[in-house]
């Protein structure tokens, strides 16, 4: 199985809770607060490695959770931080936010890392809440909770050269005679069901060629195997467009060339704009004269379109033209820049909402407050504790939340719901 796209869920570690504790010794009956802060939760970090070549391992494991931070302790002991979780992916993996489908990272080089989610912050211990008037706070802050997120991993093979063409054009056969790859070859369409990669050596140089399943007219609408495999050649620098010049399949060579280019264009304008070398294949099936005639004809039609692509004629059976082809590819590659990293939109995937605030009136006449601001505020509240609760009410007033509620009709005696808490508002 070739897995080139997988959806996984990731969750950073929650922060540990702050401790509530008071200093005690034989000499001090009632010491001050000494509850330590909770530890930070572990991060989720992706790391590219050359030791992996597929996303296969993600078939078995799809859920990744980093360690939580430990709670704070007495004597101002800070809780231990949760361990970061490293998720290894093959080089060439692009990470997308599953919700918006936006690219959040493009890991190309071995060792490259991307911190996808930061662990939750630890809660403050009760020491933090001690003031001159509140000397014995019996509450602390709970650790920041992290939500599970979904991301899509996509493996985009980074080859220099991509082979495209109709089924049976001879793509896999060519790869097998110019590279170390041994792809499956057969005289039926769609022999190749998954991309093959091969390293081609040309004197002291080498380049990577990707062979993908054949395209046919309508591939962009899903005909045949569709055009989803084009993602494997999306980032190549050069396309070898293979066309069967012998007409062994009963089609006209130049028509084939145009159809495939239309399919490339439908997939991506960028892909269509890549330089191409036209490789006319199976020349051994034609007599010398016939071949010359057909190549001449193809050339003039190409020129008719104003298409300046170079043409190389080959046979993978007699090996004719293969050295010329390798030379043409290498000369062309030398003039082309290395493929650029993917344009990653600046997009704050790990954005924490600590500011949003919504007030609304329910059908039964009660009021509701929600949003990231309130979620964050509530971390520091222990409702059963009178002092803590009065601190909470003071914050509601000081931060303008009561005013907002009044604007939408809050009156003395009305019920207010905040998360799991409900209380009566008293002026
Ligand atoms: N005579 C001749 N036959 C060839 C040549 N190249 C390939 N073939 C034959 O053409 C058929 C198809 O070859 P493949 O290499 O499997 O074609 P492909 O383009 O990879 O096809 P798909 O994987 O189905 O897209 C096989 O029977 C090959 O032996 C050639 O240069 N000369
Ligand atoms: Mg093939």
Instruction: List the strand order in the largest sheet.
Output: 10-11-9-12-13-14
* Corresponding CATH architecture of the largest domain: 3-Layer(aba) Sandwich
Number of helices: 8
Q: Structural class given helices, strands, pairing?
A: alpha/beta
Helicity level: 10-25%
Mean pLDDT: 89
CATH homologous superfamily of the largest domain? Answer: P-loop containing nucleotide triphosphate hydrolases
Number of discrete domains: 3
Largest sheet: 6 strands, mixed
Radius of gyration: 32 Å
What spatial form do the alpha-carbon principal axes imply? elongated
Bound molecules: guanosine-5'-triphosphate, magnesium ion
Q: Gap between N and C termini, in Å?
A: 67 Å
Briefly, what CATH class of the largest domain? Alpha Beta
Multimeric state: single chain
Order of helices and strands: EEEEEEEEEHEEEHHEHEHEEHHHEE
Briefly note the CATH topology name of the largest domain. Rossmann fold
How much of the sequence lies in strands comes to 15-25%
Number of strands: 18
Question: Can you describe this structure?
Answer:
The chain has three domains: 155 residues, GTP1/OBG domain (Spo0b-associated Gtp-binding Protein, Chain: A, Distorted Sandwich), CATH 2.70.210; 175 residues, 3-Layer(aba) Sandwich (Rossmann fold), CATH 3.40.50; 67 residues, GMP Synthetase, Chain A, domain 3. With 427 residues, the chain is α/β, with parallel strands linked by helices. The protein starts with a strand and ends with a strand. 20% of the residues lie in helices and 22% in strands. Strands 10-11-9-12-13-14 form a six-stranded mixed sheet, with helices on both faces. Strands 3-1-8-5-6 form a five-stranded mixed sheet, with no helix packed on it. Bound molecules: guanosine-5'-triphosphate and magnesium ion. Magnesium ion binds next to helix 1.
């Amino acid at each position: 199985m070739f897995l080139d796209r997988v959806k996984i869920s990731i969750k950073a570690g929650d922060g540990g809770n702050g401790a509530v504790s008071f200093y005690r010794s034989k000499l001090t009956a009632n010491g001050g607060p000494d509850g330590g802060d909770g530890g930070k939760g572990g991060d989720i970090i992706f790391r590219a490695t050359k030791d992996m070549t597929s996303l296969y391992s993600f078939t078995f494991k799809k859920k990744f959770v980093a360690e939580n931070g430990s709670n704070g302790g007495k004597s101002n002991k800070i809780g231990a931080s949760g361990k970061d979780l490293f998720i290894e992916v093959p080089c060439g993996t692009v990470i997308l936010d599953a919700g918006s489908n936006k690219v959040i990272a493009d890991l190309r080089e071995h060792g490259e890392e991307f911190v996808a989610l930061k662990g939750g912050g630890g809660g403050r211990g009760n020491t933090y809440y001690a003031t001159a008037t509140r000397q014995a706070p019996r509450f602390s802050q709970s650790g920041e909770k992290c939500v599970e997120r979904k991301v899509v991993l996509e493996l985009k093979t980074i080859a220099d050269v991509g082979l495209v063409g109709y089924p049976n054009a001879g793509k896999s056969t060519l790869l097998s005679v110019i590279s170390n790859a041994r792809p499956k070859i057969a005289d039926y369409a769609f022999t190749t069901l998954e991309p093959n990669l091969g390293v081609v050596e040309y004197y002291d140089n080498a380049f990577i060629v990707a062979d993908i399943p054949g395209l046919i007219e309508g591939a962009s609408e899903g005909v045949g195997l569709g055009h989803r495999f084009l993602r494997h050649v999306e980032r190549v620098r050069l396309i070898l467009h293979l066309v069967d010049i012998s007409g062994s399949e009963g089609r006209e060579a130049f028509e084939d060339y145009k159809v495939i280019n239309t399919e490339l264009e439908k997939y991506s304008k960028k892909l269509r704009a890549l330089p191409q070398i036209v490789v006319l294949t199976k020349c051994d099936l034609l007599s010398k004269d016939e071949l010359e005639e057909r190549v001449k004809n193809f050339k003039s039609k190409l020129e008719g379109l104003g298409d300046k692509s170079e043409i190389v004629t080959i046979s993978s059976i007699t090996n004719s033209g293969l050295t010329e082809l390798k030379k043409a590819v290498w000369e062309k590659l030398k003039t082309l820049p290395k493929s650029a990293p993917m344009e990653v939109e600046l997009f704050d995937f790990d954005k924490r909402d600590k500011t949003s605030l919504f007030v609304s009136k329910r059908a039964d006449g009660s009021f509701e407050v929600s949003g990231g601001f309130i979620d964050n505020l509530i971390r520091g509240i222990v409702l059963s504790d009178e002092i803590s609760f009065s601190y909470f009410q003071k914050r509601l007033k000081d931060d303008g939340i009561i005013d907002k509620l009044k604007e939408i009709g809050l009156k003395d005696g009305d019920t207010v719901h905040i998360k799991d808490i409900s209380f009566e508002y008293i002026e």
